[in-house]
């Protein structure tokens, strides 16, 4: 049995509370915790024990999703490419990334924060509208900045950092995030696995550090290739490396009947 408190629920707010919120049948809530969930329209559903999940929806197939671990990296606007590497400079593709058209560039920069610096941070191309820096929470401690967990492009209210290149430096006023883990999927893959753009997937990693990722947003597009993107902290917590597989075991808070037991 666990006692679920308002404080514990508040701590979950930053990463998002699943709706419905699954608890064991003998878990207890404090009155403040009940009000907290009611006030946010979050339903509570109980399961009896870990081996008697009640299946809520069907998945036509069990889908395995390859893992892509993202180390810290930088996306640059063309203006910042030129500030760091010189007027008219173009990024040099080093190797393609899993998503079509994206590449890791030969070029790297140094990140400089109030507490320290990290050298050799890879730039991903092509250049985009505005510069964005994606680091892990652990990197944040090294640099002395503590960015929020955000989806790519959601930069309002984020901290900045200084980028140092061979021909100059750029002090970004904002644009540093810890990337929220997400799945990319093609239309065809989404159809065969019963998933729609924006669904929150439940992914299970089976191994020495078996872990459930209960709330992973999926982005569906014909230009995407199937991939589960996590950062280095998440990869280490789950003992995952690029190319490993995780399993789709449910979506939107409900476990699939074929795979929801363990
Ligand atoms: Zn991604």
Structure description:
By secondary structure, this protein is an alpha/beta fold. It is built from 6 helices and 20 strands. The strands form 4 sheets. Strands 6, 7, 8, 9, 10, 11, 12, 13 and 14 form a 9-stranded mixed beta sheet that branches. Strand 16 and strand 17 (211-220) form a beta hairpin. The chain is globular. Mean pLDDT is 89; it is low at 49-56. The protein binds zinc ion (ZN). Zinc ion is lined by residues 182, 184, 229. Zinc ion binds next to strand 15.
Give the arrangement of secondary structure elements:
Elements: E1 3-4, H1 6-13, E2 21-24, E3 28-29, H2 31-39, E4 44-47, E5 64-70, E6 73-75, H3 78-85, E7 93-96, E8 103-112, E9 117-125, E10 132-134, H4 137-143, E11 149-150, E12 161-164, E13 169-172, E14 176-179, E15 182-185, H5 187-193, E16 200-205, E17 211-220, E18 227-231, H6 232-238, E19 245-251, E20 254-255
Parallel strand pairs: 1-3, 2-4, 5-18, 6-9, 10-14, 11-14, 15-17
Antiparallel strand pairs: 5-19, 6-10, 7-8, 8-9, 8-12, 12-13, 15-18, 16-17, 16-19, 19-20
Zinc ion (ZN) binds at residues 182, 184, 229.
């Amino acid at each position: 049995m666990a006692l679920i408190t308002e404080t514990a629920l508040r701590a979950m707010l930053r990463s998002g509370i699943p709706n419905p919120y699954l608890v064991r049948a003998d878990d207890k809530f404090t009155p403040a915790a009940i009000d907290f969930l009611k006030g946010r329209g979050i339903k509570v559903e109980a399961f009896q024990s870990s081996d008697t999940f009640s299946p809520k929806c069907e998945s036509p197939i069990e889908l395995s999703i390859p893992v892509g671990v993202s180390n810290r990296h930088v996306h640059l606007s063309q203006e910042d490419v030129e500030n760091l590497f010189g007027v008219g400079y173009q990024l040099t593709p080093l190797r393609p990334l899993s998503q079509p058209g994206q590449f890791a560039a030969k070029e790297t920069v140094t990140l400089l924060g109030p507490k320290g610096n990290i050298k050799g941070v890879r730039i991903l191309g092509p250049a985009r509208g505005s510069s964005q820096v994606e680091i892990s929470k652990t990197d944040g401690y090294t640099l002395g900045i503590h960015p929020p967990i955000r989806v790519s492009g959601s930069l309002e209210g984020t901290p900045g950092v200084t980028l140092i290149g061979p021909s100059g430096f750029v002090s970004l006023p904002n644009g540093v995030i810890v990337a929220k883990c997400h799945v990319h999927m093609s239309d065809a893959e989404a159809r065969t696995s019963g998933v729609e753009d924006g669904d929150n997937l439940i992914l299970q990693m089976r191994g020495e550090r078996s872990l459930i990722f209960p709330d992973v947003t999926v982005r569906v597009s014909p230009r995407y290739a199937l991939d589960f993107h996590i950062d280095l902290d998440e990869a280490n917590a789950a003992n995952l490396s690029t190319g490993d597989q995780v399993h789709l075991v449910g979506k939107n808070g409900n476990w699939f009947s074929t795979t929801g037991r363990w």
